[in-house]
Amino acid sequence: MWFKNLLVYRLTQDVPFDAEALEAALASKPARPCASQELATYGFVAPFGKGEDAPLVHLSQDFLLVAARKEERILPGSVVRDAVQEKIEEIESEQMRKVYKKERDQIKDEIIQAFLPRAFIRRSSTFAAIAPKQGLILVNSASAKRAEDLLSTLREVMGSLPVRPLSVKIAPSATLTDWVKTQKAAADFFVLDECELRDTHEDGGIVRCKRQDLTSDEIQLHLNTGKQVTQLALAWQDKLSFVLDDKMVIKRLRFEELLQDQAEEDGGEEALSQLDASFTLMMLTFGDFLPALFEALGGEEIPQGI
Fold it and tell me: Among 124, 130, 207, 286, which is 20 to 30 Å from 68 by CA?
């Protein structure tokens, strides 16, 4: 149940998250298979378990976990283009006339409709944890588009969901650059061996370093010529490691074995109890980690008027 990526959203108003009311709201838009002529469907699924009685909201202590699933038919663009071009050439050859844009678009639509029932189906799930007391929603994704799909669908079924991406007062790239340049991060944070450096000019170069000593003269030379750290691998205490980028996206989140062993011990033998213990421990860890991270990055920015 450990999140692999993290996008953090701030609730801008107090929202009374009641598990039963939220369960009823999510049930109004359940995930379902694509019909033969549908490109995609989107709806909520049970975060734990697949049975009909499995709840759509998992509640543990004060934290709620929800999940949404997207099902889409995959039509490779090249296949559609080739079929459209073939049809156009056939019409132009047989009828001795030019096919213009409006008719091209119509042909494309007809071909897509004809191909849809035979298209491959891809399913993907996105999880989100809600921490009402902290005023946060945490989405297990590195893609802002996937996170917004979930949040907008949550807003649709709830009627209202006042959230915004959490931001900090100082540009993350400035802080990350300072940490690598001074070879010292904030308290409890440790710089690891991976980073991305970008030239600030529009057409500037990008340097990606992996398994590299970031205290080396080579890295310092890049920084001295004006490059900024836009992605940096970090560790926090002895509990987790991650990669942070300049847009506040937390990627490749990894919880250390100490936490995983504790969750396994807390969860006992049952699979559901194991998942619950992992989720609870993860959220309690985030409760300490995220405020420390925001503070290390200059403090959370609160837009005026909110």
Answer: 286
